[in-house]
Amino acid sequence: MHSRFYKTVELFLLFILIPVTLTLPAWPILKAVLGLMGFVYVVFYLLRIEKLKFRLASPLDWKRFWKRTLIKLLALAVLSVVYVFLFDKENLFEIVLNKPKLWMVILLVYSLLSVYPQELVYRTFFFSRYKTLFSSKTQLVFINAIVFALAHLFFRNALVLVLTFLGGIIFALTFLKTKSTLLVSIEHAIYGCWLFTVGMGNMLGFPH
Q1: What gap in Å lies between CA 39 and CA 21, rounded to an integer?
Q2: In the chain, N or C: fewer CB atoms in 10 Å?
Q3: Residue 55: is its pLDDT beyond 60?
Q4: Which ranges of 46-136 does DSSP label H, i.e. alpha helix?
């Protein structure tokens, strides 16, 4: 559905213009409306055009998924603990030790209200809609990681952009392998929850 030109313009509007607009210091109502309109458009496309069914893809290779995810989590854990210890030591596991209830609320809200919608937009919709615009999977993954990082521009933090770019590559590859929004959402939630746990939640806009 729609021409290559239409899809290119659509990609620019949804994944570049709107995220850049959200970084503007003024017009909070306009930014909220633009973000909501973009999300509604994506959901409409998935439900009406792609006939997306909110059910588990079958079969899912859970054993392989957990093995790969836990290996990547171990690498993330080591690197993030070292980083926080060296550059922000007072916050190392601070929220778990001193504010366990807030920590649990953050993990729940983040996983349900942030991660899943992100994966619907940036993996399920993006790959379904724009895969024909790119000549190779490498290009598709790279551009997906770029626009995923752009979605976090409003944090105004270089480290966040680096992490989300790398995360975008990881999540894109997982989605390509599994074709499952559920699995990539679980992986995304695990890594994000770890960053809050280790003490990096403040840079991601959550209470500290």
Answers
A1: 15
A2: N
A3: no
A4: 62-87, 94-98, 100-109, 116-119, 126-130
Question: Minimal CA–CA distance to 183: which of 77, 61, 75, 74?
Answer: 61
- Please give the structure tokens belonging to residue 139: 């290009």
Digit-coded pLDDT (tens) for 74-116: 999 999 999 999 999 999 999 999 999 999 999 999 999 999 9
Q: Is the pLDDT of residue 58 over 80?
A: no
125-140 per-position pLDDT tens digit: 999 999 999 999 999 9
If we measure between CA atoms, which residue out of 191, 193, 199, 155 comes closest to residue 170? 191
99, HSE (Cβ side, Cα atoms, 13 Å): 17
Chain centroid to Cα 179, Å, comes to 16
CA distance 87 to 84: 5
Gap between the Cα atoms of 131 and 141, Å rounded: 10
- For 87, the token pair is 């550059």
Where do the domains of the chain lie?
Answer: 58-204
Of 117, 81, 114, 122, nearest to 206 by C-alpha is 114
Lowest mean pLDDT among 54-63, 113-122, 124-133: 54-63
Cβ atoms 199, 92 nearer than 8 A: yes
CA dihedral 115, 121, 124, 128 (to 10 degrees): -170
